[in-house]
Amino acid sequence: MANVFAFVESRGGDVRKAGLEAVSAARQIADQTGGGEVHALLAGAPGIAAQASRLAEVGADVVYVVEHAGLAQYDAESLAATAAERIRAGGYRAAVFSATAQGKDLSPRVAAKLRAPLAPDATAIAVEGDAIVVRHPMYTGKVIGALAITASPALLSVRLGAVPAQPNAKAGRVETIQPAADPGASKVRVVELREGNKGKIDLGEAAVIVAGGRGLKAPENFKLVEELADSFGNAAVGATRAVTDEGWRPHSDQIGQTGRVVSPELYVAVGISGAIQHLAGMRTSKTIVAINKDKEAPIFKVADYGIVGDVFEIVPALTQAVRAA
Ligand code: FAD
């Protein structure tokens, strides 16, 4: 039986979906190692403690809360010091982070402080004997590597959507702790956060993503993609790099190797060829639907459902059908 640590991401006083998923992934490891406890670390500005009950709902036995005005924004140095101190004190078998932009910055810092192994960007986790086996895409997703970590603590970061947050109510006992390093004293500070997608559903949080490529021909035709996204009610709009390079959509919409990595329940690719660099950002989506007029387009190799046809005919018909459903 082993206890497992989870680092919980929050923004603007709210726990992010990635944070809930980190707790669920930790729960999965704890259950597979004989039912140990999950200890979550939740840090933010004063008031963040109110979010602790959400972590209990997905399997946290203990929530360590750090409240500090200096943690209203991400503070790498202070959070890395605090997480490392907690992991050291807790003697955990594993420590789970999110493979988000923030988690990819934080987890190596913590691993370096602890001189512990880190398996990044997990898409599947299993406990096999003494080892925690982490599967993760390598070489832009051409192969899936399996890392078996026998050392403790095993640090890992989990790709968004890889371990969906599951209801699993636990006590969620709250303990307030102090930051191990003063947030105000960090050498690096976030001075401003500009939200590229203000008011829109974040790509990482969306259950459904409708993404458009160069097959849409012109920026104004993205309204077809937006209308299809609207018809689902809760969908976000994404794009290929060809599109963001053209300036048709903001860079924050880009999905792929040099954009966002997403794993929604449903990914609809509209006029996208399926270049390897695009697939690197979306191939782990649960269900992929592709619309392309070229039946040889590589996107069809990863698609669960493929529609060979003209986006200008198919997408409006699909939008109507989804609205009517
Ligand atoms: P295209 O490849 O031009 O494909 C357009 C598709 O639309 C074609 O398959 C065509 O058959 C179809 N089409 C055309 N008209 C219609 C129609 N009327 N109806 C239906 N289908 C139609 N790309 C990314 O997306 N994300 C990344 O993060 C990324 N990072 C990269 C990093 C590096 C280092 C490099 C070298 C490249 C990267 N790229 C990335 C670019 C990538 O290689 C491709 O160029 C890009 O993904 C292609 O975008 P696309 O599918 O929109 O365009």
Automatic annotation (TrEMBL):
<dbReference type="Pfam" id="PF00766">
    <property type="entry name" value="ETF_alpha"/>
</dbReference>
<dbReference type="InterPro" id="IPR018206">
    <property type="entry name" value="ETF_asu_C_CS"/>
</dbReference>
<dbReference type="InterPro" id="IPR014731">
    <property type="entry name" value="ETF_asu_C"/>
</dbReference>
<feature type="domain" description="Electron transfer flavoprotein alpha/beta-subunit N-terminal">
    <location>
        <begin position="4"/>
        <end position="192"/>
    </location>
</feature>
<keyword id="KW-0813">Transport</keyword>
<feature type="binding site">
    <location>
        <begin position="240"/>
        <end position="241"/>
    </location>
    <ligand>
        <name>FAD</name>
    </ligand>
</feature>
<dbReference type="GO" id="GO:0009055">
    <property type="term" value="F:electron transfer activity"/>
</dbReference>
<dbReference type="InterPro" id="IPR033947">
    <property type="entry name" value="ETF_alpha_N"/>
</dbReference>
<comment type="similarity">
    <text>Belongs to the ETF alpha-subunit/FixB family.</text>
</comment>
<dbReference type="GO" id="GO:0033539">
    <property type="term" value="P:fatty acid beta-oxidation using acyl-CoA dehydrogenase"/>
</dbReference>
<protein>
    <recommendedName>
        <fullName>Electron transfer flavoprotein subunit alpha</fullName>
    </recommendedName>
</protein>
<keyword id="KW-0274">FAD</keyword>
<dbReference type="InterPro" id="IPR014730">
    <property type="entry name" value="ETF_a/b_N"/>
</dbReference>
<dbReference type="GO" id="GO:0050660">
    <property type="term" value="F:flavin adenine dinucleotide binding"/>
</dbReference>
<keyword id="KW-0285">Flavoprotein</keyword>
<dbReference type="InterPro" id="IPR029035">
    <property type="entry name" value="DHS-like_NAD/FAD-binding_dom"/>
</dbReference>
<dbReference type="InterPro" id="IPR001308">
    <property type="entry name" value="ETF_a/FixB"/>
</dbReference>
<feature type="binding site">
    <location>
        <position position="292"/>
    </location>
    <ligand>
        <name>FAD</name>
    </ligand>
</feature>
<feature type="binding site">
    <location>
        <position position="214"/>
    </location>
    <ligand>
        <name>FAD</name>
    </ligand>
</feature>
<dbReference type="Pfam" id="PF01012">
    <property type="entry name" value="ETF"/>
</dbReference>
<keyword id="KW-0249">Electron transport</keyword>
<feature type="binding site">
    <location>
        <begin position="271"/>
        <end position="278"/>
    </location>
    <ligand>
        <name>FAD</name>
    </ligand>
</feature>
<dbReference type="InterPro" id="IPR014729">
    <property type="entry name" value="Rossmann-like_a/b/a_fold"/>
</dbReference>
<feature type="binding site">
    <location>
        <begin position="254"/>
        <end position="258"/>
    </location>
    <ligand>
        <name>FAD</name>
    </ligand>
</feature>
<comment type="function">
    <text>The electron transfer flavoprotein serves as a specific electron acceptor for other dehydrogenases. It transfers the electrons to the main respiratory chain via ETF-ubiquinone oxidoreductase (ETF dehydrogenase).</text>
</comment>
